[in-house]
Amino acid sequence: MITTKFETEGDALIMDMKGHASFAEMGKDPVCAGASILAMTVAQCIRNMGDERKFQKRPTIRIQNGRVLVVCKPKPAYYAEALHIYYMGETGMHLLAESYPDNVSLTPFAMPEKG
After folding, report:
1. Helix (H) / strand (E) containing 10
2. Domain that holds residue 54
């Protein structure tokens, strides 16, 4: 089961994805592939924002087998931009979780106070 959690902690935005879908053989699993590309897209977009110095400090991006963690603290002027990136990833994960409820679990954002 892939579990993905989107959350805020103070002014930080967090996406934490763990596990494997176990829908098909490892390396040939379309559900894992879909979740992976969504998480990698969020990570790359946040990396791009980091290159443009839009964060209070360098974002944390950890990509390992079965785990993707992306944490950032945007500068106030860029909070909405970063939040939009996370929401796009969350929307894609929501679609996967709806289509494959036995393989994907999603904990969406609680409504953040900023933005």
Report:
1. none
2. 2-107
- CATH code at position 91: 3.30.70.1490
Measured N-to-C along each axis, helices 79-99 and 30-51 cross at an angle, to the nearest 10 degrees, of 180
CA angle 87, 92, 97 (to 5 degrees): 120
pLDDT at position 47 is: 98
**pLDDT given for residue 111 in this prediction:** 64
How many beta carbons lie within 10 A of that of residue 58, not counting itself?
10
CB neighbours of residue 109 within 10 Å: 16
Which tokens in the block code for residue 100? 């494959």
Structure tokens given for 35: 């979740």
pTM greater than 0.90: yes
Residues of the chain with pLDDT under 70: 111-115
